[in-house]
Amino acid sequence: MPPKVKFQKEAIVAAALEVVRKKGIEAVTAREVAAELGVSPRPIFTWFTTMEQLKVEAYAMAKKRYREYIETGLKGPVPFLGVGQQYICFAKEEPELYKLLFLTKPDEAVGGAMDALQFSQELVRRKFRALLPAILTRMRSLGHWSRSEEKVRG
Questions:
Q1: 3-state SS of the chain?
Q2: How far apart are CA 100 and CA 94, in angstroms?
Q3: Distance, CA of 112 to CA of 91 (rounded, Å)
Q4: 44-80, pLDDT tens digit by residue?
Q5: What distances in angstroms separate CA 132 from CA 45, 75, 86, 135, one per listed residue?
Q6: Calpha distance 81→73 (Å, rounded)
Q7: Global pTM value
Q8: Tens digit of pLDDT for each residue in 97-151?
Q9: Are 33 and 16 in contact (CB under 8 A)?
Q10: Could you tell me if 68 and 50 are in contact, meaning their C-beta atoms sit under 8 angstroms apart?
Q11: d(C-alpha 28, C-alpha 92), whole Å
Q12: How far is it, in rounded angstroms, from Cα 47 to Cα 97?
């Protein structure tokens, strides 16, 4: 008897994400994920007791993918413009992931626009906080910021 094929949790979640990318979150079923892996549904239930758990993991992986887009935008010459451009690229290149993150109602399995927007805002805030000391130093060197006044001059 040949040994059973074993799948790690990450491979199952990656397969679920592929199902989401192709068909949407509602298509994430044991059969669809198993078909993506090329196996029976049994290995999925080795790691997940419910499909809801797998959907939550797929949602987290979709957020990670979105984060990559936003971080790319933040590295551009005009970070906030880059974020907007990458947001649009994400929507265009990953329409099902975009629907999951931004168009799914919060009371559905996972997702919701407010959660996704808060996530986006936090990514931008972190980048801005990291850049703030360099921005202030540059503004002071140009004479646009006075420590005594602690305000930006026109």
A1: CCCCCCCCHHHHHHHHHHHHHHHCHHHCCHHHHHHHHCCCCCCHHHHCCCHHHHHHHHHHHHHHHHHHHHHHHHCCCCHHHHHHHHHHHHHHHCHHHHHHHHHCCCCCCCCCHHHHHHHHHHHHHHHHHHHHHHHHHHHHHHCCEECCCCEECC
A2: 10
A3: 15
A4: 998 999 999 999 999 999 999 999 999 999 888 888 8
A5: 47, 15, 22, 5
A6: 7
A7: 0.71
A8: 999 988 876 555 555 666 667 777 777 777 777 777 777 777 677 776 665 555 4
A9: yes
A10: no
A11: 21
A12: 23
Longest dimension (CA), the chain: 80
Is residue 33 within 8 A of residue 19, CB to CB? The reply is yes
Residue 145 region by backbone torsions, left for phi larger than 0, else alpha for psi between -120 and 50, else beta: beta
- Give the number of C-alpha atoms closer than 13 A to the C-alpha of residue 60, restricted to the C-beta side: 8
Overall fold of domain 9-152: Tetracycline Repressor; domain 2 (1.10.357)
Token couple for 24: 């949407």
Residue tagged 């130093």 (tokens): 137
